[in-house]
Amino acid sequence: MAKKASAVAGAKIVGERYLRSKRRQNPEGRMPLMDHLRELRNRLIKAAVVLILGMIVALIFSNQTWRLVTRPFCEAAINGQTGCKQVGDQLVISGVFDPFFLRLKIAFFIALIATSPVWLYQLWAFIAPGLYAREKKWAYLFTGTAVPLFVGGAVLAYLVMDRGLHYLLSLAPHGTLVLPSVDTYLSYFIGMLVGFGVAFELPLIIVMLNMAGILTHERFRKYRKLMIFGVFVIAGMVNPSPDPWTMLLLGGLCVVLVEIAELFVYFNDKRRARLHPDPYAGLADDQVSTVDEAEAVDADSSRN
Fold first, then answer.
1. Residue 38 contacts residue 91 (beta carbons within 8 Å)
2. Alpha-carbon distance 72 to 154, whole Å?
3. How far is CA 249 from the centre of its chain?
């Protein structure tokens, strides 16, 4: 036992000496370009394997995922019918290979969302070593807030999607038969989820701009009306459904989130003012220039 313990202790000493020598040779921890490429390749392979496994699981439960995706369409009243039970209230597939590619497309979309924690971690593990501690803290804050906001927007889009479909399909002239294709519906479905998710990221962008020192509460208050107008414009651009109710709902909720972000900006500016008081606060412009000239003279005299 004594020989084994001494052997383990010797191996640890050798390993520590090796690591110290490597740090002396490369104190900044820089990695050669080929090592970076190999690291990127390994991360991509891991993400791709997990994504493929997720697609296989989604294909096994393809009937359940299909019902999940088509629920908003089947709940929308089309031609006075609901439930996807008869012609005029069903999605249409026109190609021979479309059913196969349809299952693959839905499986990929479901797997991309379900495995997002894994491939996002692989992306983070590749980027994180090159960041400073402060940058890592900002990245953690951004990721930890961006994901819930995006998911919240996507869930809201899923819940209100049937009303948008009912409005759009009810615009068909009287006497026409509405037969939406599966590809058209999937484009609308994905566009609604992504559009609502991206719109819900607006308050996070405001907070990050404030933390970076670009957007202050004074500027926010000065351009409040213009920002609110911009929020509705962005909500209308990212929303694939042109019906007014969906646009008003998305724009209204984004404005509420922006107002919450404004509270953060206000209190963050107050905190900054306490930690770093402005030496020019309360001075007129001519007084500020006088103070600057005096400081410049003092600096020149100290150098001399």
1. no
2. 13
3. 20
Per-residue CA distances from 136 to 130, 144, 193 (Å): 9, 12, 29
Residues with pLDDT less than 70, the chain: 1-33, 78-81, 83, 88, 130-132, 134-136, 238-243, 277-304
Confirm if 201 and 149 have CB atoms less than 8 A apart: yes
Q: What are the φ and ψ backbone dihedral angles of 243, each rounded to 5 degrees?
A: -70, 140
* Number of Cβ atoms within 10 Å of the Cβ of 300: 9
CB 258: neighbour CB atoms within 10 A?
Answer: 19
**Stated pTM of the model:** 0.68
Residue 8, amino acid: V
Rounded to whole angstroms, the Cα distance separating 136 from 235 reads 30
pLDDT value, residue 291? 46
> What pLDDT is stored for residue 198 in this prediction?
82
DSSP code of 282? T
Write down the pLDDT at residue 182.
87
- Alpha-carbon gap, residue 200 to 41, rounded angstroms: 33
d(CA 123, CA 250): 30
**What's the CA gap between 101 and 198, in Å, rounded?**
27
Residues 193 and 157 sit within 8 Å (Cβ to Cβ): yes
98-140 pLDDT tens trace: 888 888 988 998 898 888 888 877 877 777 776 667 666 777 7
Residue with tokens 């439930």: 83
